[in-house]
Design a protein that fits this description.
The chain is mainly beta and about 550 residues long.
């Protein structure tokens, strides 16, 4: 808000995404508009993982970016956009779901919370160890840590664990409590020898939710190795949302399962990382294929009471890890509603207002009614010639563990040439494309429900010229004049394995978009309206749906 202090946090990463303290450099800070107390330069010395500049103030409503420049004035990095306005809600970022070395990850739980607060710079963190690995002693220690690190107004920690039953018994669900000292209900004691509290066994998701009925708790279904079956077990009081993205991949199918069942759920994302890096989880060279997600919570203040209240009202949106700003409201007559609201009205229309500020240029915005896209907005136009093609590999083999798809791809032009290329969601620095000639390129990548793509900037490719793509999942032969902004898709089996080739402009530049859409309401038919954003760099965001019924 205007005149409210904020901070700028700068971190150096190595090529694998690990924080690095091997920097010895002075950088210049350049703001897009005046900022009180912002220094002109910041110096990193060997041993410094990051620098945090506190006490910054902007007095006017504005949108602010800060750029980090090297000695020659080149841009090393740019901040996410800070939106300064006098509003009831502020945007706070969380990674609520990951693990440390006491269960299946690395590092200690204390180091885990230190990383979330001091290296990932999230506002809210939870620690979700597998229940069958958490001893009573470690559960007590986790509660001590969340109580110690919880600091309203600066950094929230939420005590909890992952109920880790097999899919046939409901699958993985995260459980969070408002206060410390609450019981851990285990799906099994496979790695916990103590059997002194049999009343705390909950061998199915139904059992777990039954035992939580009297607790001040929230539950979220997620997709990991033991993916959640929300058709088997769901409790509207306990389970406000589902997790659509994590380091395991992107899983819009769990959202569609909820729509099929008529549930009213919100959308969250987290890392579910095992590397002790909550809030900044790179997948590394492992079974994980995606950058860890984040959830943005709309809260008047940063404390547990407001957090739980807003979470139960689904007032949050999910991203694949980029801090994309979204302000999406539904106006009916004179009333403005926030995302996640359940609305009954006698009106025959609703105005959907969408404001997006990306961390990269916007590739598309999709407006959904439940499972159906009702409009796609692309804030750009194509030129008369093909300047850039995007070749996208996407999908997963199936819902469970082992969903990862390995791709081996070769693309060849029969005319024209490749001037340059760029990768999207290539997180492994050792697995990069090889430009074989001016007309041919090859690469290897992986997908786990989401997408991995490569952009080719071309000269002299047009008309009846052909693009040949050969992969271990399927092949395509395309004529240049048949490739448009929507793209051509080849289904390749599995659950949703697919190839897509689309045309993009030479350059995208629009990072901000505001639109309003007037949508009709029909008596007795519920509209489930939400927005998905896709950036040029592959990052995505999903708002929790509005559930609107004309009565």
């Amino acid at each position: 808000r205007p005149d409210e202090p904020f901070r700028l946090s700068i971190k150096c990463n190595d090529k694998w995404g690990n924080p690095s303290d091997l920097i010895d450099q002075t950088v210049t800070l350049k703001a897009s508009s005046p900022v009180k107390n912002l220094p002109e330069k910041v110096t990193f010395q060997n041993g410094d993982f990051c620098k945090v500049v506190e006490g910054l103030i902007v007095s006017d409503c504005n949108n602010l970016e800060v750029h980090v420049l090297d000695e020659e004035g080149g841009v090393l990095a740019s901040s996410n956009t800070l939106v300064i306005r006098s509003s009831e809600h502020q945007h706070f970022w969380s990674d609520m779901h990951a693990q440390s070395g006491e269960t299946i990850g690395v590092g200690t739980a204390r180091e885990y919370f230190e990383f979330a607060r001091n290296k990932a710079f999230v506002d809210i963190a939870g620690h979700q160890g597998n229940d069958f690995q958490i001893t009573d002693a470690f559960w007590a220690h986790l509660n001590e840590l969340t109580a110690e690190y919880n600091e309203p107004g600066r950094f929230l920690t939420i005590p909890g664990y992952e109920w880790s039953g097999n899919t046939g018994l409901g699958g993985d669900h995260n459980v969070w409590y408002r206060t410390e000292g609450r019981p851990i209900y285990r799906s099994s004691r496979a790695l916990v020898a103590d059997t002194s509290m049999p009343d705390n066994d909950a061998h199915s998701a139904v059992d777990m939710m039954t035992k939580l009925q009297q607790e001040d708790a929230i539950v979220v279904a997620h997709v990991g190795g033991r993916y959640a079956d929300i058709k088997y077990a769901h409790d509207a009081k306990l389970e406000p949302s589902v997790e659509v993205h994590s380091s395991w991949g992107t899983f819009e199918w769990i959202l569609n399962d909820a729509f099929d069942c008529g549930y009213k759920i919100g959308i969250v994302a987290s890392s579910d990382g095992h590397k002790g890096r909550p809030g900044s989880e790179f997948p590394g060279n492992s079974q994980f294929g995606s950058f860890g997600g984040l959830t943005c919570h709309l809260l008047p203040e940063l404390d547990r009471d407001h957090f739980f209240s807003a979470f139960r009202r689904r007032q949050h949106y999910a991203t694949t890890g980029a801090r994309i700003f979204m302000d999406v409201t539904a106006q009916i007559d004179e009333t403005v509603h926030q995302i996640g609201e359940i609305i009954q009205t006698t009106s025959d229309h609703v105005t959907l207002n969408v404001e997006v500020i990306g961390t990269a240029p916007l590739e598309r915005i999709d407006v959904f009614d439940g499972k159906d896209i009702i409009e796609t907005i692309r804030p750009w136009d194509l030129s008369n010639q093909i300047e850039r093609l995007r070749i996208t590999c996407a999908g997963q083999h199936y819902r469970g563990r082992g969903r990862l798809v390995k791709w081996e791809v070769a693309a060849r032009l029969d005319a024209g040439q490749i001037n340059k290329y760029k990768t999207i969601n290539f997180w492994n620095p050792n697995r990069q494309p090889k430009l074989i000639s001016e007309t041919e390129i090859s690469w290897e990548t992986v997908t786990t429900g989401g997408a991995s793509a490569i952009d080719l900037w071309l000269n002299g490719f047009s008309g009846s010229d052909k693009l040949f793509i050969e992969t271990n999942q399927g092949d395509m032969t395309l004529v240049a004049n048949k490739i448009d902004m929507t793209g051509v898709t080849q289904e390749c089996g599995g659950m949703d394995i697919r190839l897509n080739v689309q045309q993009l402009p030479k350059k995208l530049s629009e990072k901000r978009l505001s639109i309003s859409r007037d949508l009709k309401l029909t008596r007795g038919m519920e509209r489930r309206l939400f927005v998905r954003v896709t950036q040029e760099d592959g990052h995505q965001a999903w708002t929790s749906p509005f559930y609107i019924l004309q009565s």
